[in-house]
Write a structure and sequence with these properties.
- This protein is α/β, with parallel strands linked by helices.
- The protein has 3 domains: 1-50, 434 Repressor (Amino-terminal Domain); 55-163 and 299-324, Rossmann fold, CATH 3.40.50; 165-295, Response regulator (Rossmann fold).
- Helices cover 41% and strands 17% of the residues.
- It contains 12 helices and 12 strands.
- The protein has helices at residues 8-15, 19-26, 35-48, 56-59, 77-92, 106-119, 132-141, 165-178, 195-209, 227-237, 254-260, 297-313; strands at 66-71, 96-101, 123-126, 146-149, 159-163, 183-188, 215-219, 244-247, 272-277, 291-294, 321-324, 327-329.
- It has a 6-stranded parallel β-sheet, sandwiched between helices. It has a 6-stranded mixed β-sheet with strand order 7-6-8-9-10-12, with helices on both faces.
- The N and C termini lie far apart (75 Å).
Length: 335
């Protein structure tokens, strides 16, 4: 005998609330319900793997051919290049994408996952906050595959892709020491909990520590593009008698740093070296050309989507984990 398919009335009964409240929850209208009610409904939905009746065709075995891409910040060039890679593979496989921006909020992230589940998407690609295990449990209960990207955790039970920023910065820093730079300044925003920022800072710090060196940090504000203030900070940080490498670990900050160093451009690369990350679309047009560590960003997007497509074809497939190597393009801003 076939198992009875759950409907909205069943969910309401199990959650101890009305069908109207459950309907509001499934459609993302949380204003008129308490946090306790929302959590009760969420627990029932997660435990049962319930999908609304509008997507009953999905339960019957057909597909929406839509995947959700959830990212921390979709407003920068890095995100655009990841999307390019994802959509290239998705379109070839006959899928469309829905893109959601969490703004680094775990609460927004969860709400977006719940909303996408209610709409019946086939699978998820997520750049997670620190709550990836909760997302994993939620999606496993809903029987939806997920692949994480730009991932910072050693989790062998799920599929993920990341780039080796730590190794790339470590190797580039080591090379700069060998090229004769003996003083190091990092222009960076506070790393906070962002995995990629921590790895970049650690890569340089560890490469210098084994040689008895360390870098000074000049704080850079992502939201305040004050070039003159940055120039003053650099004047205080750069020691004229030393051969100094200035490193910018942020794609968004390199152009600002180039402007802040304009009065010292004649000292490059003999007395001052400059190293950035990505920006290969314009770094070679600067004078001098800027050496940059390059992440395989589009390749990361292609790979993460290819893994998801494989999971959609074979739901029982083993998890896949991949770390992609970065490269460094050496130009005239470093010796």
């Amino acid at each position: 005998m076939a198992e009875k398919r759950l409907n909205i009335h069943d969910i309401a009964q199990m959650a101890g609330t009305s069908t109207a409240t459950v309907s509001n929850y499934l459609n993302g209208r949380f204003e008129r319900m308490s946090e306790a009610t929302r959590e009760r409904i969420a627990q029932v939905v997660h435990r049962t793997g319930y999908v609304p009746s509008a997507q009953a065709k999905d339960l019957a075995g057909s597909s929406s051919h839509v995947i959700a891409v959830i990212i921390l910040n979709n407003s920068n060039l890095w995100a655009g290049r990841v999307f390019t890679g994802i959509e290239r593979v998705a379109q070839q496989a006959g899928y469309q994408t829905v893109i959601c921006n969490t703004g680094f909020s775990s609460a927004t992230e969860r709400a977006q996952v719940e909303k996408m589940l209610s709409l019946g998407v086939d699978g998820f690609i997520i750049q997670p906050t620190s709550h990836h295990r909760e997302l994993r449990r939620l999606l496993e209960a809903a029987r939806k595959p997920v692949v994480f990207f730009d991932f910072g955790y050693a989790d062998v039970d799920c599929s993920w892709v990341r780039t080796d920023l730590y190794g790339a910065v470590y190797d580039a820093t080591s090379s700069c020491v060998e090229r004769g730079y003996d003083d190091f300044v990092v222009c960076a925003a506070p790393p906070g909990k962002m995995r990629s920022r921590v790895e970049r800072m650690d890569g340089m710090a560890d490469a210098l520590a084994v040689r008895g060196l360390e870098a000074r940090v000049v704080e850079m504000d992502e939201n305040t593009a004050d070039v003159q203030a940055l120039e003053r900070k650099l004047d205080a940080a750069i020691v004229p008698a030393r051969r100094t490498l200035v490193f910018c670990p942020h794609q968004w900050g390199l152009a600002r740093l180039v402007k802040a160093l304009r009065s010292r451009r004649h000292l490059m690369p003999e007395r001052i070296g400059l190293l950035g990350i990505n920006n290969e679309d314009w770094a070679d047009l600067a004078e001098p050309g800027i050496s940059t560590i390059i992440e395989p960003v589009e390749e990361e997007g292609e790979l993460v989507c290819s893994i998801l497509m494989g999971q959609l074809r074979e739901p029982a497939a083993a998890p896949v984990q991949r770390i992609l190597p970065c490269s460094t393009r050496w130009l005239a801003s470093t010796l």
